[in-house]
Amino acid sequence: MFEGLSDKLERSFKILKGQGHISEINVAETLKEVRKALLDADVSFKIAKDFTAKVKDSALGQKILTSVSPGQVMVKIMHDELTQLMGGDAIEINLKGQPTIILIAGLQGSGKTTFSAKLALYLKKKKGKQPLLVACDVYRPAAINQLKVLGEQVEVEVFSDETQKDPVTIARNAIQYAKEKGRNVVIIDTAGRLAVDEQMMNEIANIKKAVQPNEILFVVDSMTGQDAVNTAKAFNDRLDFDGVVLTKLDGDTRGGAALTIKSVVDKPIKFVGIGEKMDALDVFYPKRMADRILGMGDIVSLVERAQEQYDEDEAKSLKRKLAKNEFNFNDFMKQIQQIKKMGNIKDLAGMIPGMGKALQGAELEEDAFKSVEAIIFSMTPAERENPKLLNGSRRRRIAEGSGNHIVEVNRLIKQFEDTSKMMRMMTTAGGSRKMTQMMQQMRQQK
C-alpha cells in the first residue's frame, strides 16, 4: 500500500539530513521532490502545489530545537498536512433511523456488491446490528445471485424480487420487509452506472427520493487514481453523497485517490477495502494512513486487530500451560489461526514501524503458513500433544506426509522450541529477569 509514494517521500527528506537548520533554500529543494512524488502518485497539480505551499509556510515558521533535526521537523509537518489533506478525523457511518437505510452507489466494477456484504458483516459483528441486504441491480447478469452468495458467506439475509424490474419498487418493498422482520439496517446495493448516463443517474436519484437514506456511500476503485476523484465529483454533484469507500486499497501503490478525494468533493472517506476476504474492511483513519505513508507503521490498528481475536479464557489457559512447560503443537496451531484471522501477513507487517520498507518488494503470500500447517497436520494427535515424541523416524514420516523436506520439519520443530522458551520466559517472573539480563548483555556487546 502506497509503497512508491512512501519511498519517494523518504528520499526527499534526505535532502535535509545533516542540515543544521531549516532555510528557504533547503526547504524549496525538499518540497520540489515532494511535489514530484505527489504528482507521480496521481495527485492533481493544483492539490500538489497547494499542499507543498502549506508545508513550506509551516516549515519556515518553525523554530528547531537542538534535540530535533530539520528532517524530523519536516516529517512532523508533512504528517500533519497529509492528515488534514485526507480529512483530519475519522467520520463514523450514520446509523440513525429505524431502520437505518444505507444506499450504495458507484461505477460498474468498483466493488459495490462485495462492499455491501462486507459492510453488512462489519455492522453485524462490530456494531451489533441486524442488517438486510437488498439486491437492486436488475441489469447486470448474475448480480442478484452474487449478492445472495456473499450474503450466505456473511450469514445476512438478502431481499430480492426477480419478477420486479423497477429498483425503486424493490427498495421500497425491502424497507417494508425489514420493518416486519425486525431488521434495523437496510443496505441497498444498486447497479453500476456512469455519471454521463442520464437515465441511470435519474434512476438512482429516484431511489434516493423514494427511500430517503440516512447514508449514501459512493464506492470507488482506488487503483483508478485521479479518474476515481473525477468520477466521485460528478456523482456528488448529482447525489450529494455522505461518504466515500475506497476499494482495493491494498493494491494501490500510488495513493492519489486516498490523498485527494476529500479535498475535491469535500466528503470524508469512511471505509477502505484492504483485501478480498469478507472481513477485509477498515474504517478510514487519516492520521493512521499518514503514519503508514511516512513509514511510521500503524501500531494502533495492529493492536485493534489483535484485540478482536483475543480470547481472555484462552490466554489464561495458555499462560498456565507455558508455566507448566505443556505448550504443544495444538496450542501453536491455535496461535497461527489467530494471526491468520487478523488479515494479510504483508499488510500486518506493514503496520510495524520500519517493516514496510524492509519488506518492500518481498513476496509474502496469503498462504504463508500453508507449509507449517501441513507439517503439523501430518503429526499424529499424540505427537501434537507431546512434541518430545518427535524422534528421527517420526520426523521423516511427517516430512513425507506433508510434502516437505526433512530440513523444513526440523526447522519448524526448532522454531517451536525457541518460541516455547521465549513465551515461557515472558510469562514467569524469573524468566522476565533472565530476559532483561539477556537484553542488557546484547546492548553491551553492541
Describe what you observe in this structure.
The protein has helices spanning 3-13, 24-40, 45-60, 70-85, 112-126, 143-154, 167-181, 198-211, 226-239, 256-265, 286-293, 299-309, 312-323, 329-341, 345-350, 355-358, 370-377, 381-385, 392-402, 406-427, 429-445, and strands at 100-106, 131-136, 158-159, 185-190, 215-221, 243-247, 269-273, 281-283. With 446 residues, it is α/β, with parallel strands linked by helices. An 8-stranded mixed β-sheet has the order 3-2-4-1-5-6-7-8, with helices on both faces. Strand 5 (215-221), helix 9 (226-239) and strand 6 form a beta-alpha-beta unit. The two termini are 34 Å apart.
Sequence of strands across the biggest β-sheet: 3-2-4-1-5-6-7-8
Q: Which shape, going by the Cα principal axes?
A: flat
The CATH homologous superfamily of the largest domain is called P-loop containing nucleotide triphosphate hydrolases
Q: What is the mean pLDDT?
A: 77
| β-strand amount | 5-15%
> Could you name the CATH class of the largest domain?
Alpha Beta
Care to count the β-strands?
A: 8
Helix coverage percent:
55-70%
CATH architecture of the largest domain: 3-Layer(aba) Sandwich
Poorly predicted runs are 442-446
Distance between the termini: 34 Å
Rounded to the nearest angstrom, the radius of gyration is 26 Å
Number of domains in the coordinates? 3
In CATH, the topology of the largest domain is named Rossmann fold
